[in-house]
From TrEMBL:
GO cellular component: membrane
GO molecular function, one term: FMN binding
FMN-binding domain span: 51-125
InterPro entries membership: FMN-bd
Protein name: FMN-binding domain-containing protein
């Protein structure tokens, strides 16, 4: 019986190590996200979709461009932990007409993933 308990505890510990390594890898990936400098004045009118996904957070967006400006950003999907407040970043991006806006405090990782999804949408146009 002791061997079975020991084996179960060992498997739980090993599983926890693998989960921890996976989470750390995903967080490092998000921390290293870089954004291209997009000239918003050269955007073409249209509706564009983009997405970005990590092991922890994934976002899909739809970006509407009119008169060389972002008029609307819809978040089609946002799988996050506690990153729901990051969705406010779309208002800053529309206001500033730039991806170079501050991340939402307390939702930094989701903020970065949302910006990367928007960038991908705009680069497809």
């Amino acid at each position: 019986m002791k061997k079975i308990v020991f084996a179960i505890l060992f498997l739980i510990i090993i599983g926890g190590v693998f989960v921890s390594l996976s989470i750390n890898k995903s967080l490092n990936e998000i921390e290293e996200v870089t954004l291209e400098n997009i000239d918003f004045s050269k955007l073409k009118d249209g509706v564009y979709e983009g997405s970005y996904e990590t092991a922890l957070i994934s976002v899909a967006v739809e970006v509407t461009v009119e008169d060389k400006k972002i008029k609307k950003i819809d978040i089609l999907e946002h799988k996050e932990g506690k990153g729901k407040p990051a969705e406010k970043i779309i208002n800053l991006i529309i206001k500033e007409q730039s991806l170079d806006v501050d991340n939402i405090s307390g939702a930094t990782y989701s903020s970065k993933v949302i910006k990367k999804a928007i960038e991908r949408a705009l680069l497809r146009e």
